[in-house]
User: What shape does this take?
Amino acid sequence: MTLPRHVVPGRTLLVTRRCFGRMFLLRPSPQVEAVFSYCLALAAEKYGIQVHALIVLSNHWHGLVTDPRGTLPEFLRWLHCNVAKALNVHLRRGESLWAPGSYSAVHLGDEAAVLEKLVYVITNGVAAGLVPTPGEWPGLHTLAEDVGTRVVDAARPDFFFRQPALDDEADRDDSARARRRRRAPARDPLPDRARLALTVPPAFAAMPPEDFRARLRRAVDDRVAHLHRQRAGRPWLGAEAVLRQDPFGCPGSTAPDGSLNPRIACRDKWRRIELLETQVEFWREYRQALTRYRQGDRDAVFPEGTYWLRVQFGVTCRAAA
Assistant: This one.
């Protein structure tokens, strides 16, 4: 059994999800960009998630988001489920699109951590040795000047998603899928377009937007220069080679790298210790309440931030302090 997630409204987080077997199932293409941007915009609107930056690489994606309502698990469930279904139709495959297990969500505990992870997302293609500058990544990505200014206007893809104009044709279709659809309850088609505004993280809400973007651009430039020095003349894969990748291919090694999977990032030492202690206390209180609940005590009070048991079984949770 995995440790329970601590889902608290208002947190800013770095979200990551990898493809099955690290395959290049998200390789940049018009179809992948259309599906991901449309589903992300719909999911963010549906669950009230603020998206600040994202990058979709060939075998994983990163997003920096804020969760005002404490709905991150449902947001990611909807997003990943619909992206997987649509891209499996596009790729003519039926296996899992995403790696086994769950997503990674790192709570960013202070302003410095938010800025660091923003830079990490923007420069991820450079850090992976794929392109020499963030703007050369051929897939869906965010640049420093996009944060707080860009609005992604995504049209509904012309495959997988229900199309109003095809209703009459669907009535004439006698395939098994069409028959199942006719028996299912009527549903309205998804909207023709979905819009997603990339917002400034709340940690920088008090700073003038132009000053924030200037600070972010400097940090991105410093990071790119550092990555170039690290590569010491080694060639970049390049955008053209990325576009030639086989979606069913994968890197030379698919073994886990053994790195840590953190839940909290914070540059301030004492703030980090405080957040870690809060996380451990949540797990301790959760375990105690779960033990009482399993023994039949339906009045057991779970700690603030309990998500799954609250949504699925309506357990009582302590109110926010």
Remarks:
- The mean pLDDT is 90.
